[in-house]
Amino acid sequence: MTRNLTSIDPYSPSTGYYECRLCSFRLRSDDRVERCPECGGAVRNIAVPRE
Question: Where is each DUF7129 domain found (predicted)?
Answer without folding.
Answer: 7-51
